[in-house]
Each structure stands twice: as structure tokens, then as C-alpha cells.
Amino acid sequence: MREYKDNIFYYESGEKADPLEKNTVHGLVKTLKDTEFPVSQRVLEFCTGRSLPDSATFEYETEVPAKRVSSDSAERILIGLSRTGGVRDGGGAGESPQVDARVRIKNSEGESLYDVFIEAKVRGSDLQRSQLDDYVDAFDIDEQGEDRQPWDTIQWSDIYRLFEEARESVPSGEVASRDEYLLSEFNHRLLQKGMVRGTLGVSKTGGSGDKHRKRLLVGPKDPDSDPVLTFWAFSRREEQNQSSSMELPEDCLQELFGEMSLETRRKVFLEGNFEKLQQWVVDTTDLTPSDFKDDGSTFARAEREGYPEPAGIMLRFSNSNLFKINSYNVEKSNGWIYYPPILAPNEWETVFTELAEKLSASQRDRFIEDFDLDALWEAYLHDSPMSTS
Predict the structure, then answer these.
(1) pTM of the predicted model as reported, rounded to 2 decimal places
(2) Is the dihedral of CA 109, 112, 25, 358 positive or negative?
(3) Closest CA to 219 of 55, 44, 376
(4) If we measure between CA atoms, which residue out of 318, 368, 364, 373 comes closest to residue 345?
(5) Would you say 144 and 152 are in contact if contact means Cβ atoms under 8 Å apart?
(6) Fewer Cβ neighbours under 10 Å: the N or C end of the chain?
(7) What confidence tens digit (pLDDT) does each residue in 289-298 have?
(8) Does residue 287 sit in helix, strand or coil?
């Protein structure tokens, strides 16, 4: 696996500043600007929903204040870009509105066709309705129809998918082309920062409330890697907020649950039946329900190849009704994560029933029959249409 700082878009942040959003937007614009025309055409046609002529030209800017935008006849379009595409109440653009980026699309005569304004959020942050409303006023954004809000939202996964499609269309050669290199580097950076991890299911509550919900994620570590399933938890312990995650590769999933019948797999992983999972453990091991009390008992282990220590996956029940997925050093049988991802029965049910809802019938079959994580990744990548919610 490549080192974290090997990526050309990596930036060492200072103690007081968090430049991730600014640098990610700059990286996106740089990638569009320095690759061949079809890449920008593909992305901007997706953003605008319009076909662009092959003779079109593009001008790129970042950190664009409203006071620097002059009036012209070009149609103005506002795009919100985030990991989920979600918009929540609150926010605001302040007294001097400044949008993250603008792309000016012109025809062959140099006449403006469209101005695309982009407001981006990184990590898991949602877009803010009041901020978008302020941009609509400050940049004189055109209305998109009577029943639509004057902006559209897309996800970082859309950018990732469009860049991957463009990268795969680059003619192969002994030496990677500039386009192939830049597209791969930017997508690798998105994966590094967790902005293209597909959220398959989220518990409604967790820990002390909604803030500490548990999540099930899917995504590769690198553009050319196989996807992994990730149990992610944010909880509160001993007056400290603690997040933890456990990555589960496909071969580990097959080793841990490979002996489970297809009928039981459907009950456990598509219907979220936690009791069925516990009953399967009782039926196939020497453990009894009494072994799950207090500190609990481990019921399955699997080694993970290509991971630094601790390199093992350990599954256990504790306190009768808590599922814990932890790590251990396969040579020393220790190395536990202090706060492992933990799911209560209702959390397990919600997370996995949400997963099932995102899959087509054929994807559900692939996942259940082979624990095929590509089916989950495909469902996530292609389930991010233009949204206004």
C-alpha cells in the first residue's frame, strides 16, 4: 500500500488551519484544467444536465467572491458537492459571499454559455440550505423550474465515478499518460480522505443519541484495489468522543461466515435478524447464550493479509446482546482496539435492512451467495443521481 504522503494532492496542514476543503477543491479544479477536454466535458455535462459542444472552452477559478462576478447573459448554475449530497438547515454565506469554484463555459466564438458555481463540503459535512440560498442571491443564480430549488447537488462519488470512467477510456500504454496519472491521483486522494466510502446503512440512534450512530461503509483503499466492508462507530466513553473502524476484506468475510447457510445469510444480512446470528453461533460452536454475558466470548476469527499488526479480525458477543468486531495480533493473540465498533440488536437490524434496500435483486444474490463486495460498491457508485433534497 502506498504511503499517505505519496499523493501529489497531499498537503501538510498547520496547527490552526484545516485546509482540506480548500485543497480538495483546488485539486479538483487542477485535475479538470490539466486533463484533456473530454474529462471536463463529461463532468460538466453531468453537473448541468446539458450537452456541450466539442468546440466549447472552459475557464476555471477558485475562491470566487460575489463582488468579482460581473453581469452577463450566461446562464448561471449552482452545484452543491459533498459526500452524501445532503442539505441541512442552517449556515449562511456571511457578509461577503465567496463560492469555492466557478467554471465558465464558452462557445467557439468566446461567448459565455454557462457559469457553473460549485460549493463543496468535505469529510461527512452536509451542505447548508441558508448558505446555498445566499449564493443564489449573491451570484444571481438562474431558477431551474417552478418545482425545483435553484441548485442541484452531487456527491464526491459522482466525481470519482466520472474520473474512473475517463481514466478507463484512456488508451493503455507502457507509460501512464498525464490524464491517467492525474485522474488516478485525485481519486486516490478522495479515497484516502474517506469521501468516497459508500454508506450502506446507518443506525437511527447510538450511544447517547443521534450523534453516535453506527455506520456500515464500503469502498476500496486505492482506485485499483478491491473494496472492503467497514464497520464504523462513533461513541462516547469516559467523557471522550472516540471513533473507530474495522475493515473487513471479502476473503475475511467469506472465512468468518462461509459455513452459514444461504437462508441464514439472508435472514442475518438482508433482514437484519440479530437473533438468527446468535442462534447460528450456538448451533455451530460449543458456545451457549450464557457465554455471551458480561465479557462475552469470541465466536470467529480470520487473518487479514496485507495489513500491519494487529492483522486479525475477531468477532464476539458480550453483555448478552452486543456484537463486537475487533482486531488482534495473529502472532500474539492480543492488540485489541480500545473502542471497537459495537452494534446492539436494533442497530444491526437497521444497518443491514438499509443495506438490503440499496441493492438490486441480482446484487443481493451476489452478496449473499459469495459475499461479493463488488456488488455493494457498484450499488453505491451508481446510486447517486442528481438530487435536490
Answers:
(1) 0.78
(2) negative
(3) 376
(4) 318
(5) yes
(6) C
(7) 999 988 889 9
(8) coil
